[in-house]
Amino acid sequence: MHTPTDGLGASRFVAFSRDEWSHLRDQTPLLLTEADLFALRGLNDQVTLSVVEQIYLPLARLLNLYVAATQTLHKATDTFLNNPAAKVPYVRGK
Question: Which phi and psi (to 5°) does residue 56 adopt?
Fold first, then answer.
């Protein structure tokens, strides 16, 4: 993992090699089939199941962690403010 800096040692970005990023998938299962992927592909889209495993599954895992953390934060805020828990929709496109 390489963290590019602004010369002062500070950065908001972290760079990963493809292999490093792929390992962040952890145990996220690949539920997509080749037929599913074919149906989702755009015109001239070259996405393969391998790319889905290496790139998109780690990204999906990260997004799920962010959603869970955001829901926990909202719940903590509601508890602190003594507000009834509000349902916040989570919309995911396909």
Answer: -80, -35
Beta bridge partners of 27: none
CB-based contact 63:90 (threshold 8 Å): no
Q: Tokens 């490093």 appear where?
A: 20
pLDDT digits (tens, 9 = 90+) for 17-66: 999 999 999 999 999 999 999 999 888 888 999 999 999 999 999 999 99
| Sequence letter at residue 91 | V
By C-alpha distance, which of 12, 28, 13 is closest to 62?
A: 28
The domains of the chain are located at 1-94
- At 20, which helix (H) or strand (E)? helix 18-23
Q: What are phi and psi of 31, to 5 degrees?
A: -100, -5
Q: Model pTM?
A: 0.71
